[in-house]
Each structure stands twice: as C-alpha cells, then as structure tokens.
Write a structure and sequence with these properties.
Layout: H1 2-14, H2 18-35, H3 39-50, H4 54-60, H5 66-76, H6 84-120, H7 134-157, H8 174-182, H9 189-211, H10 216-258, H11 260-263, E1 268-269, E2 272-273, H12 274-297, H13 311-333, H14 342-359, H15 361-364, H16 368-380, H17 394-421, H18 425-439, H19 447-477, H20 479-482
Antiparallel strand pairs: 1-2
Helix pairs in contact: 6-7, 6-9, 6-10, 6-12, 7-10, 9-10, 10-12, 10-13, 10-16, 13-17, 13-19, 14-16, 14-17, 17-18, 17-19
Length: 484
C-alpha cells in the first residue's frame, strides 16, 4: 500500500491529463467507499497513507475541486497553457507585501503619535485628563522592538532551519560568513528571505517537471523543503501578528477613543485622510491576522480541508468574534494605562504553557519552536494544535476557552480596581466617560460598573457561542464527517 501511495503522488505530480486523473481518482473513491463505509474511517485512511499532499486533495474531490474546475474553465478560454505556478508566486508576493505593509504602517503610526504629542498637543497633558500621549508612542515603539526580538529568538530556537542564504564556500571570508549567518536576524529580512527561497523552490520544481528530469528522491526532498519554508514563513507572520499587530490594534483603538478630535483634523498619511487611513490599515491588519490563523489551522491538513466549504466561514466568524471582543476588552481596561496590556498576555501564556505541558500529551511531544508558536497563537484565540496524525482536540479546546474567558474577566476586573483604587483621580473620572464615548450612555453614578457587567455578559456570550460554533464544525462540518 505504501509503495502504491508514493507512486500515485509521483504520477499525479507529472501527469497533466485531466480526464485520466478523473478516471483514476474516481476508481480510488469507489475503492475507499467499499473498504470503509464510514466517512471518518475513509478520512483516517487517506490521512495515514497520503498525508497532506496535492494528491490527497484530488482523492477527496475526484472530479476536481472548485478551484480546479475554475482553472479548467479559464484554461479553455486561452489557446496557450496558463502558468498557474506564476500566479501562486504572485499571491505569495502579495502576502509578503501585506506583511511589510503592516510593519511600515506600525512605524508610520508611531511617528504620527509622536507628531501629535510634540507638535499638535505640544505636551499639554493637563488639558486631556492628565493622559500622556507619549504612553501610546512608547508602547507602539516597544511593540516594534519586541516583535523583532521575538522573531530573532524563534530563529535561534529553530533546529531545522530552512536554507535561506547562500551555501558556505571554502574561500568565504569573515564578512560574508557574518552576513550569511546574521542576516536572518535583521528586522524584516527573514520574511523576505523565506519568500525568495519558497519562490526558488516552486520555480525549480516546475522547471524540473517540465523537463521530466527530476528523480523521486530529489522530488520528495524539494517538496519537504517547500513545506518547511512555507510553515516557517507562517510562524514568522504569527509572531509579528501576536507581538505587534494585536498590540497596534489596541494602540490605534485607544487613539480613536481618546483623541477623536485629532482624527477630525485634516491630517494626512500617505496622501489620504488620516481617519480613512486608520480604518483601512486596521482592516488590512485584521484580515492578514485571520489569514495567518487560517493557514496555521490548516497545517498538515491543507489538502483535507477545502477552502470552499461551509466550515470555513463558520470558523472565520467565530475567530473574528473572539479577536474583536478581546481587543474591545483590552481597550476599555487599558484606556488610561496602555503600557500595561502585556501583563495579562504574559500571564496567560505562562499559565497556558504549564497546563498544556502537564495535561495535553500531544503538546508535550512537540519541538520547542512548535510549542512556542502555539502558545503565542493560543493567546489570541482557541485554535487546534497542528498534527500529522489525527488527534482529539476536546481537552485542548476546553482549556483554551476557559483561559480566554478568565483572561477577559481578569482584565475587566483590573479596570474596576483601577477606577476605585488608583491614585490618579483624572484617570478614575475618565472611566465614567467611557460608556458615553463608546455606546452613547449619559454619564451617571455607577454607570461604568454597569458597563463592565454588560461587557462581562458579552464576553461570556461570545465564549459560549464560539465554542458552540467550533463544536458544530467538529461534529458536522469537519472533513472526517464529509469525506466523499
């Protein structure tokens, strides 16, 4: 069976006859149905024997996926052969551009905050409830620095590093060796190097396939390296997303809430109105965040989880609710002290690591860098742990949702204690204005406390609804329930 599976992967990679592919994979579908009447058994059989490869996706959709059919329709409109691998590279380049844009946008926001602080407000803090705008500037700057430090730490932690730089030579001098070894540690260099290497592998595989000169060993080596580079690039994006983008969403939201009149001025950034610019950049950051989470969720299952399925919008909706709710909670709680929001983040990551290490067997078996990435992404929202084998995620999801609710509850409790016990009365008084600013409530006695209770109810509702949606996805829309 193992020899047949390997040969089929090899054959599918080289064969371009669409009709012949339909016939072969239809026979495999009939065979799987006869051998495994249960959909879950078929899913486990395909996962065990074929893994996460292109042929797996075609086995699950013998007549071709929606994307395959769309490609065939487009191809029929042209006489020449369309180079789909070039379009794949272009899409990867656009993802890299959004990654770089996120970074440039965060730098621009930091500079803009400093401009507001030094030129517009002119450091007249007493006029604005004693709030120091430089808090936001320094917080934004620290997020940028921490993001680069964590990416460098991840690269140092990674044992099986992709070959993103030139191979060493015998006549290599010290300067070239230094540049080769330490260039991945420079800010924003590693994502570019990973993209270049991934593009090189795609072009190399396509060229060898066209010439029909690739051996089986070389084929599997290149495919494994391609997957390694792709997963590493996704890991780097997740680090940037958690350590920088999430924090910048909070900083930007605080700017919208605290200094609304500044956004009504005719300030411009990149030639457009600053208010429009803020909304557009927050939207891009949020969408790229969801894209990175979705890629991580599909790791080792990409071919078994079709994009065009009912489960995809359900997951995206649940994740969106969880992220938006968390940002909203953090903005309200740290509206006076934005530099403190890293404290609950660090505490949750530490508690999650201890619980996963002692209670989740699959987590214990992971390598250090895999644990590190999962701890980071599980801080944002509950997500399954990637595994090449089928594993139950019930215990993991229960822990994640409990931690999510406790984290948001603790953050709201922090806001309550800050209002009643913090020595700065300007901060305490501003908390009373928060309900009016956000949802239009008129300021009254104990209005903020009622607002916190309302937010706690919202957090509970979002937690329960998201867990219900993920349960529905696992029980009814998961590929293991719908194979063929």
């Amino acid at each position: 069976m193992g020899f047949f599976c390997q040969h089929l992967k090899w054959w599918y990679f080289h064969n371009q006859d669409v009709e012949k592919q339909k016939v072969i994979f239809t026979y495999i579908e009939i065979l799987e149905k006869n051998m495994h009447p249960n959909a879950e058994e078929r899913y486990l059989c395909i996962l065990k024997n074929y893994g996460d490869t292109a042929v797996t996706e075609r086995i699950c959709c013998p007549r071709g996926t929606i994307i395959d059919r769309l490609k065939n329709c487009i191809q029929c409109c042209f006489s020449g052969r369309i180079k789909w691998h070039i379009l794949d590279i272009v899409f990867s380049f656009l993802c890299l551009c959004t990654h770089i844009f996120d970074h440039i946008k965060d730098i621009d926001l930091t500079v803009t905050l400093n401009h507001f602080d030094t030129k517009v407000i002119q450091r007249a803090y007493y006029q604005y409830n004693d709030f120091n705008l430089s808090y936001l500037t320094y917080t934004s700057l620290c997020l940028l620095i921490v993001s680069h430090i964590v990416i460098a730490f991840y690269w140092a932690l990674l044992r099986n590093k992709p070959k993103v730089t030139i191979a060493p030579t015998k006549k290599e001098n010290r300067m070239i060796k230094f540049a080769r070894l330490f260039s991945p540690y420079l800010p924003m260099v590693l994502p570019i190097l990973l993209f270049c290497r991934l593009t090189e592998l795609k072009l190399h595989l396509h060229a060898l396939t066209e010439l029909d000169e690739i051996g089986k060993y070389e084929f599997w080596r290149l495919m494994e390296e391609k997957i390694l580079v792709r997963d590493t690039a996704n890991d780097v994006k997740i680090i940037e997303m958690v350590t920088e983008s999430f924090g910048q969403l909070i900083v930007t939201s605080l700017l919208l809430v605290r200094f609304q009149w500044l956004l009504e001025k005719d300030f411009r950034s990149f030639g457009i109105n600053f208010n429009t610019y803020i909304i557009a950049t927050m939207t891009v950051s949020f969408l790229s965040l969801l894209h990175a989470i979705f890629k991580y969720h599909n790791r080792h299952r990409r071919s078994l989880r079709p994009l065009a399925s009912l489960g995809t919008p359900l997951l995206l909706f649940a994740w969106s609710m969880l992220v938006v709710t968390k940002v909203f909670v953090y903005v309200v709680a740290f509206i006076n002290t934005p530099g403190f929001f890293f404290v609950p983040a660090f505490i949750k990551m530490l508690v999650a690591f201890v619980l996963f290490q002692f209670l989740v067997d699959d987590f214990k078996k992971k390598q250090s860098h895999e644990k590190f990435i999962y701890i980071l992404i599980s801080f944002l929202l509950p997500v399954s742990l990637p595994s090449k084998d089928f594993k139950s995620m019930k215990k993991l999801n229960i822990i994640n949702f409990m931690l999510y609710f406790l984290e948001c509850t603790g953050v709201l409790a922090f806001a309550f204690f800050m209002k009643h016990f913090y020595h700065n009365q300007h901060y305490c008084q501003f908390y009373e204005k928060v309900p009016q600013i956000i949802i239009g409530y008129s300021p009254e006695d104990n209005q903020f406390e009622l607002f916190l209770v309302l937010m706690l109810v919202v957090v509970l509702f979002v937690t329960l609804l998201s867990s219900l949606l993920l349960w529905l996805h696992a029980e009814f829309l998961h590929p293991k329930k719908q194979t063929f």
